[in-house]
Design brief:
404 residues; alpha+beta; six-stranded mixed sheet; five-stranded mixed sheet; 9 helices; metal-binding; hydrolase activity
Length: 404
Amino acid sequence: MEKLIITRWKGRILTALFSGRTALQISLEPVEDSSLLNNIYVGRVQTVASGINAAFVEFEEGQTGYLSLSEYQPRPLNRPEAKKLASGDEILVQVSRDKVKTKAPVLTGLLTLTGRYLVLTPQKPGINFSSKLNSRKLKEDLKPLIEQALQECGCPDWGVIVRTNAGIQTPEIILRELKSLAKRCGFILEQAPRRAPKTCMYQALPGYICALRDSYEGKLEAIVTDQEDCFLHLQEYLTESQPEDLPLLTRYSDPLVSLSKVCSLEKAIAEATNKRVWLKSGGYLVIEPTEAMTVIDVNTGKYPGKKDLAETILQLNLEAAWEIGRQLRLRNLSGIIVADFIDMERPEDNQLLMKTLAQAVALDPVKTTVVEMTKLGLVELTRKKVRRPLAEQLRENEKNEISR
């Protein structure tokens, strides 16, 4: 069972997910200047770079994002008959990735509205299911119900992605969410042509509520915050969208010991940013994020092992695989990841390692893929880029503190 903690830490809202005393996920967000991720705007095209098939779009005052036109080209709101974008066109865009270091935010014209059970995709038809939903019966039962609901909402050509949490929810609740998302999306599409450029048409939920929404159904045992404003927002969201979890919400108010102290958040943050991660066996990982990729090295360290050397290395590698799965989520590492495990000679040991690593990353709500083991014995993974890595969030917080 897991516990979600929301508090303030050095002027930012800190969200931490724990399983027992072990931190699974930590994120920081500004109180006022919140993340733009998943916000939808009426943007204005500044330039179209035909050489890279992309456009640069101003979507907020002083904020310009990169829009790839390879997958989808939005239709101009001010020139709906136009087949190609041009400077000055007004288009509907969504922030698909926060700015990272010197890189501008990434935009998309393929809008998505995310709920707890479904993702609505108005420009991408078709009904798809999370790869973690393996029940054929569930898919056969839900698909016609969703198709009928889309017909009733007047949007039969829209698409839907059924999320993992739908696997243990009733069709009635799933369809109720679908109708709510469709109503909201219909309003955005209807109103956008009448709005001025740089208007925010949809503001995504705060990060701490997204963490609650994206948590796995039935796994949370408590939602705890010591912040009055966060408590009220959580209460409102739960009442409207997750009423079954409302009893889990509590307001921490002990004046003698802070919530941060009780949960040892300082220690958890320090461990989540340390280059070296010790394993219980005495081995350790070295985690090195670079501009191009993240490299993880597995070392034997103080591991005494057993008499059988092959079995010793296998057990250490398996432990490292589970810890790598946790560390990727905890540090919010993304993009290309290369793990250098200790070499093993037996093919069956390598197969078991790859299977274990796949099981470890499957616990992560963010899509993570174990690609392959190369001829050099390096394991390649990819993790979807969504929010900024925890280390970068902390660096930005330090800069803001210095500037103040």
